[in-house]
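Researcher: I'm comparing several assemblies side by side, and this is the next one on my list. It has 951 residues spread over three chains. Same procedure as the others: predict the full complex and return the structure.
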Amino acid sequence: MLKITATFIDEITGDIPHQNWLADDWDKDFAAMKAIGIDSVTMIRCGHGRWITHPSKVLEKEVNAYTPVTDLTKLFLDLAEKHGMKFYFGNYNGGFHVRGNYRKEIDINKAVCEEAWERYGSHPAFAGWYLTQEVGRLQWNIIEVFHELGKFCKELSGGLPTAISPYIEGIQLYDPFRTGVNAGKSVTLPDFEREWNEIMAGITGCVDTISFQDGGCDYSELEDFLTVACYAGKKHGITINTNVEAFDRDMPIRFLPIKWDKMLLKLRAAEKAGVAGATMFEFSHFMSPNSSYFQAHGLNRCYQHYLAGGFETSENQ
Amino acid sequence: MLKITATFIDEITGDIPHQNWLADDWDKDFAAMKAIGIDSVTMIRCGHGRWITHPSKVLEKEVNAYTPVTDLTKLFLDLAEKHGMKFYFGNYNGGFHVRGNYRKEIDINKAVCEEAWERYGSHPAFAGWYLTQEVGRLQWNIIEVFHELGKFCKELSGGLPTAISPYIEGIQLYDPFRTGVNAGKSVTLPDFEREWNEIMAGITGCVDTISFQDGGCDYSELEDFLTVACYAGKKHGITINTNVEAFDRDMPIRFLPIKWDKMLLKLRAAEKAGVAGATMFEFSHFMSPNSSYFQAHGLNRCYQHYLAGGFETSENQ
Amino acid sequence: MLKITATFIDEITGDIPHQNWLADDWDKDFAAMKAIGIDSVTMIRCGHGRWITHPSKVLEKEVNAYTPVTDLTKLFLDLAEKHGMKFYFGNYNGGFHVRGNYRKEIDINKAVCEEAWERYGSHPAFAGWYLTQEVGRLQWNIIEVFHELGKFCKELSGGLPTAISPYIEGIQLYDPFRTGVNAGKSVTLPDFEREWNEIMAGITGCVDTISFQDGGCDYSELEDFLTVACYAGKKHGITINTNVEAFDRDMPIRFLPIKWDKMLLKLRAAEKAGVAGATMFEFSHFMSPNSSYFQAHGLNRCYQHYLAGGFETSENQ
């Protein structure tokens, strides 16, 4: 049975509404994570556009960032320590590489990571790095970005582990309602295999773990994509995880918690593919008993029922 | 005062996010239905695409269906029995008739219904059939579909009743925000009358009840459409109900619980039109005190206030 | 520290789903408003299309209005009185001026306001008028509309104050996700200054207060827009307030409560610009501890933390 042992935290975001939690709310939520076996949190990014998680001279200068209300980086580090969890630091998403300037994305992030390391590197919960640049295909000079930033972060921190979380650029992204319009843009399995072999070859030694987002392809294709990914990972010495998306992509409201049946299908597909582990996106909105979305409370109970073996036979409840 | 005595259950769905309820949650919700006078539940479909409500060799073979986590058909039958309610079985929605192959829609469904009857037909709560193929106009060989499937289900089950729930293809479907763009596609009252007379003539004896969805036309038109439907129903020996949609079609979030004032307007229009009864779509998301949407809790209290006569005068609270 | 002392109530609406509250729910919510320092409520409109807040012979005749289930105008007046708050009456939004017939918008509203004044003018909580016609630019004969209706309402009521709440027609309205498509349609600061000086010059003496909606421009531009507005207000003898939008415009779900950090940024920008006060849109859905959206409960706690000085230093929690 594949268990989820890590989650992202998505506080600087472009598409998930905020729950407006204060420190005590977060404390309660870290406890809820721990209660179902999550022992690692990854702050998905320390900034996006002008919004940032902690005061940063670099980002105030480079992108005119707004001074944050709360130092979320410190808050999450402290809570991770308090609850005996590991904290992974997500770097800055400037999107410059997407707009043709990958050099700027790298340079800003070197300064951002250096500043963050100086400020938080000695924190007992600081366990590693997450490179927040998301990608589906071999594009945007992504090998250079991951190679250089992964290497830099490792050298900076005495070799702390680094991770990325790409998506599978499949039909759920292009045509979630199966209208047929953009269906042809989906990546094929052979292209996925070829491109990710090339990417992995280029970032080996710099990126330790790749957690593939599990919501990009059709439910029936996930096992194949992850199998290919695991095979490539083994070849290039990179750990392959699944990143369980706990929200529904194929509903008119974008986004509410996923139907448990779909999540279970994905967990089982990832297990069959042989992934090393499972992280999720993300606990606090979509599977927390504290979520503003009550469908998440249900999902939490379903997941606990799963952990207790409650869905092992096909017809029971 | 028109009272709602039945509800659909929409668990295999394309547009309503799931609440992730386990058996005890459903038990609680059946009790809540009963508490406001609902004594019948219709499982709206036993499958859609690859998602199904109970293990089905037919659908695993024909559409490569995913084995369901829980046998929802059995769960709902058991809960209906426990709470003294009737259960109606919704057939499979393959959509083949919409894509030009009505024969396949019929054939698959004969096998699906046969299999379901064998498996669940002896259950004390099994009270009849619901033909899930939704339609607004005379199209898609819908007469053949309803005629043949209705007849088949009746013969299979010793004459158990059959029902359908079409929509009124009006302005709320084509132009809910009244931008004017697709307003002209709405069905006119004379066309509605002519087409439904023809459909009813073709399915009489095979379909016992038609519950028209009440949310397709403008609020001010509903009484007229339902009056015409009731007149045609009387002529062809078919019971006409209203199917009260308890969600808002004219809000940017698709879909949240409807404003009570709108629902009351529709209930009163249906009553004036002379419908035989009222079912709803659907209790658990949109009018349940257990719903993840708290606006539904309010709607439940408003509806109870209505049952108690609280909105009988125009200015009271 | 800029404090919010007023809120709109948005019960006849085109884009905010209803919570289905009965009188006791509203009573509880007025108490919650009072608890955080709100002492004025503005019923944003007494009608829109065929939906109205109280029985109105005028609107039944003119626009075939539906008789309302509850007399909301009376309910809100009574609750305002009970909780020691002021009530401002929003007039009818017919949108005729937008469609080229501003004369009709004025004439209907004179009759509507006369009828309302006759019915509710003697109520101890009736404190003034709100002209519900929203506008961003100098268009739609808006000067005539505001001038004539403001004057009429003042004369009718012995000089009770009048207010409007325009929007800043900026990039958050045209391009909230920064795709670039409609970005060029945003109003520039010089155009804003010129047009609002002209509007203010035309409505001085008829409109006492302008509360600019704070969500139309980019967060970084708000201080400038409001500074210009305050300067113009001073020149023309009109009070300038900010109208704090407590919902997020830049999320895929339209609309859920805003992230507190964004709201704080807007409050601080308005304070620096020198506004006279702050109203909000609106408490009951987006910042109430009774809201159906639990993100609003969080926002309420954040705002109380702010009132208590909890965000005064940049790094505390």
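Model: For your comparison table: The two ends of chain C are 18 Å apart (CA to CA).
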